[in-house]
Design brief:
Elements (H helix, E strand, L loop, with lengths): L6 H11 L3 E8 L2 E8 L2 E8 L9 H17 L8 E7 L2 E7 L6 H5 L28
Protein name: Aminoglycoside phosphotransferase
Organism: Streptomyces hygroscopicus
Length: 137
């Protein structure tokens, strides 16, 4: 079962999605995530873990992630309906997005890996560079 999600997030999602049930599916690197199922939809709820090791302000990172999602939606890069809601809770920040079925990348590829032939996120390729596509021309 694991730790319960922030009560403030559950109350907000109850209002938006109908009565919800929550199941923890990730607790790593200072963040926790739950699958939240309601009668009107399903969301992924992410919150900072207050017991996380010191060094990074996960609540501030969560707020930044929310600002970026709002900016991406304003720019038309993601559907405005992808971000469900976000807010503060007594020990940090939380963010809810629309649930998309499928295996998380860490399960598909393992921690710290990426599909073969693809550059890591944030890696710029030089002009004319062609990634190694495993022998494909």
């Amino acid at each position: 079962m694991g730790p319960a999600p922030p009560a403030e997030a559950v109350a907000a999602l109850d209002h938006l999605l109908g009565p919800v049930t929550c199941a923890l599916f990730s607790d790593r690197r200072g963040s926790r995530a739950w699958k939240v199922i309601g009668s009107r939809g399903t969301a992924a709820l992410k919150a900072n873990s207050p017991e996380a090791a010191p060094g990074r302000d996960k609540a501030a990172e969560m707020a930044q992630e929310d600002r970026h999602l709002l900016a991406l939606a304003d720019a038309g890069a993601v559907s405005p309906g992808y971000r469900v809601d976000a807010g503060a809770w007594e020990r940090g920040r939380w963010l809810a997005v629309r649930w998309i079925d499928g295996a998380p990348p860490v399960e598909r590829h393992g921690p710290g890996t990426r599909p073969r032939g693809r550059p890591a996120l944030g890696t710029a390729m030089a002009p004319g560079h062609r990634p190694n596509l495993g022998g494909a021309a």
